[in-house]
TrEMBL record:
The keyword Transmembrane belongs to this UniProt entry's keyword annotation: yes
Keyword Membrane: yes
Transmembrane segments: 6-30, 87-110, 157-179, 191-211, 249-272
Name the UniProt record assigns to this protein: Sporulation integral membrane protein YlbJ
Entry keywords, A to Z: Membrane, Transmembrane, Transmembrane helix
Amino acid sequence: MAVGMFGMPALGHTMALAHYIAALLVGLTFRFYGIHEHERTAEPPREGNMLSRALAALIKARQEDGRPLGQMLGDAIKDSMRTMALICGYIMMFAVLARMIDVTGLFPYVSAPFRWLFAVLHIDPALVRAAVTGLLEIDLGTLAASRATDAPLAQQVAIAGAIIAWSGLSVHGQVASVLSGTDIRMGPYVAARLLHAVLAFIWTLVLLPMAGPLSLGAARVLPTLGGLPAALWQTPFWEHLMRGTRWSLVIPLCLALIGAGAALLTGGVRWVHFHTRR
């Protein structure tokens, strides 16, 4: 999105970091969700490591399934094609819905809550259309945010980040269709997406000033070879690839380690509390 829509590759690391931090905070927040719904019981001891247990469960499920390998492959292909058609159908349906809201004159009424909220938060009203569209469909919403050039660039990027974190009702419908027939509830998922959108918006605004002048309003770089600096495309391929992926690998790894440490600490606190209560 930083290159294809905003034409500014320098925004990529900032937006990715904001989303990683927001996702980590959402995970830590929902770490305590539902801990009082069911009484905790001591788990029986498990034999072997996680990999061996997973392999044993895989073999057991394969034996209980009973289908031959050819039928399993065919069913897997049919299910994947059905899922792809489902995703495309949701995208087209909500894209048409967004267009119908605009054509039928319902946009002023649908956008009224966003206009009020943006006025309270001092966000440029030129981004209202992007927010309404992003509420329905993620790609059209981020594209509208990138095209709202009358608004400050920082607000454009922050709104686009919030839209990506929210993912749009189109994606929510896809998730609901996949989760149908399971005991997984959609309420916590929607709440997590909303919290992720708010945190991504905030962290994008926080991190943008640290990204340097290019991310804050310097001349945009066209996503074509001719618009890139000569030093960029003259750099050997593997060296450029390593430079581009360095932070994309380091940042998630660091955040994963922080999240694992936080999970261990919170899990340890809950374990002590459980046993002392007994």
